[in-house]
Amino acid sequence: MAALVLAEAGFTLAVHHRDSKEQGEEVCFLIHRRGGKARLFQGDILQPGEPRRLIQAVADTWGRLDVLVHAVGPFVRERRRFADYREEEVEALVAGNLTSAMMTVHAALPVMRRARSGRVVLFGFGRVGEAPAWPDRAVYAAAKTGLASFTKTVAVEEAPYGITVNMVGPGDIVGENKEKRILAVKGQADGETPLGRPGSGEDVARVIRFLCEPDADFTTGNIIQVTGGLDVIHPVSKAPLFD
């Protein structure tokens, strides 16, 4: 949804995928059908050197990189205590949610510095800036909390180059709602969300669009919650106990 909203705002999109070519092609098709411009790029940014290769490919294609939106996971919905994760699962969650973001930003900054302008948008969760306890989400929470600190730090470091770095923290927007417009969910009731309706992909995408605007240069180092007022963090573990 963020790609479509940015395309509607006039951005030319470099749509990235690792192993979901069909979905990437569908996004590009929808953008082209609406009169926008987009091109699909493949790369596994979890692998050493791949973020730099990907960023260079985009810069070689269009000669610039104005915006980087890093929307890489994974997120495990199953509730599990930290002790019940396998080592490889811990490594994958940290690599996807923290390391891949850091290395992709590291690759993008030289291109943006040369232009003396750039926008970086990363993903967290509601209340990530508080570094709260999130039972059953220990690894994901730790990775995103680290990314929140990274967001604030790089925002300060890159401000002299005209580069902003911000984080959006979506609420519990799941399933098909991730790709829906606001109008499509406004008539639906959601008893958990204080706003009274579920969130949509467009709710998040509209915030991203603002952060990417040239005149949004005074907004940097921020964590912006898009939750409808919902606190997704439960105070105690709900995962089953194992001996």
Short description:
With 243 residues, the protein is α/β, with parallel strands linked by helices. It is built from 7 helices and 6 strands. Strand 3, helix 4 and strand 4 (118-123) form a beta-alpha-beta unit.
Relative helix content: 40-55%
Average pLDDT taken over every residue: 96
Distance between the termini: 43 Å
The secondary structure category is: alpha/beta
Number of domains: 1
CATH class: Alpha Beta
What is the percentage of strand-forming residues?
Answer: 5-15%
Number of helices: 7
Radius of gyration, rounded? 18 Å
Bulk shape: globular
The largest β sheet comes out as: 4 strands, parallel
Q: How are the strands of the largest sheet arranged?
A: 3-4-5-6
Could you state the order of secondary-structure elements as H and E? HEHEHEHEHEHHE
What are the segments in which pLDDT stays under 50 over at least 5 consecutive residues?
Answer: none
| CATH homologous superfamily designation | NAD(P)-binding Rossmann-like Domain
Give me the count of strands.
6
According to CATH, what is the topology? Rossmann fold
Level-2 CATH architecture = 3-Layer(aba) Sandwich
